[in-house]
């Protein structure tokens, strides 16, 4: 039986917030978290990914009560055998979460009568989990065994590759991600009716006027203060 998934929690850092997508998590919880996150963190992006959970540090226990660890280690060959396929099978859920977040974000702008017209910027990154494993100097015997395994394919060299995916959503553009190899999808632009455009212009003028009346450098306000 799958373990219940904890609700995502916003960290207190200043960099991108990482959200791991799993096969048994709740899509609604991830979407709600992302929308709430962008409400209070305009300068921080969210990175949805399917990478394995970071292994927890070992806990000292009595030898008699010791239990086998279930943590995933990307450098472990045995871990690849029974665990890492979930890195790939969670990709469709990742794509669903991202598309729903983008759509619901646009709806939230409309519901709030926000002056913002653009949706979320999206950056896609894919890779192979095996490439992330730390390089460990192998013995001659281990290297020979690896060569025999690679040559065990009937027609081609046998290789193991476990694809993973990361998608970054942001309120603003992050061009350095494209420079590092990510593919970019521009934000959805809200389509406004003529009446909605007129209302938005009125709100913009009202906001500009309110800002000017609060400016001490405004001559009219200065004259009132002198009186």
Give me the Rg, rounded: 25 Å
In total, the number of strands is: 5
| Shape descriptor | elongated
End-to-end Cα distance, whole Å, is 76 Å
The SS-based structural class is alpha+beta
Q: How many strands, what sense, and barrel or not for the largest sheet?
A: 5 strands, mixed
| H-E order | EHEHHHEHEHEHH
Percent helix, as a range, is 25-40%
Residue share in β-strands: 5-15%
Q: Are there runs of 5+ residues with pLDDT below 50, and where?
A: 61-84, 221-227
Description of the molecule:
This protein has 227 residues and is an alpha+beta fold. It is built from eight helices and five strands. A five-stranded mixed beta sheet has the order 1-2-4-3-5, covered by helices on one side. Helix 1 crosses helix 4. The C terminus is likely disordered.
Features:
single chain; 227 residues; alpha+beta; five-stranded mixed sheet; 8 helices; 5 strands; elongated; disordered C terminus
Q: What is the structure about, briefly put?
A:
It is built from eight helices and five strands; from the N terminus they run βαβαααβαβαβαα.
């Amino acid at each position: 039986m799958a373990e219940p998934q904890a609700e995502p929690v916003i960290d207190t850092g200043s960099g991108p917030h990482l959200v791991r997508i799993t096969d048994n998590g709740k899509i609604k919880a991830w979407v709600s978290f992302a929308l709430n996150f962008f409400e209070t963190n305009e300068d921080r992006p969210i990175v949805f990914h399917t990478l394995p959970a970071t292994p927890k540090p070992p806990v000292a226990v009595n030898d008699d009560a010791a239990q086998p660890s279930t943590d995933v280690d990307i450098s472990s060959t045995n871990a690849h055998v029974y665990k890492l396929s979930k890195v790939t099978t969670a990709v469709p859920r990742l794509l669903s979460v991202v598309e729903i977040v983008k759509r619901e974000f646009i709806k939230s702008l409309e519901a709030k009568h926000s002056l913002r017209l653009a949706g979320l910027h999206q950056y896609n990154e894919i890779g192979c989990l095996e490439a992330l494993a730390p390089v460990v100097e192998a013995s001659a015997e281990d290297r020979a065994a690896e060569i025999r395994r690679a040559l065990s394919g009937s027609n081609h060299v046998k290789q193991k590759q476990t694809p993973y995916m990361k998608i970054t959503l942001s309120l603003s553009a992050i061009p350095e991600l494209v420079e590092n190899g990510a593919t970019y999808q521009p934000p959805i632009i809200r389509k406004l009716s003529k009446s909605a455009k007129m209302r938005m212009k009125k709100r913009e003028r009202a906001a500009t006027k309110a800002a000017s009346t609060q400016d001490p450098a405004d001559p009219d306000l200065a004259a009132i203060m002198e009186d």
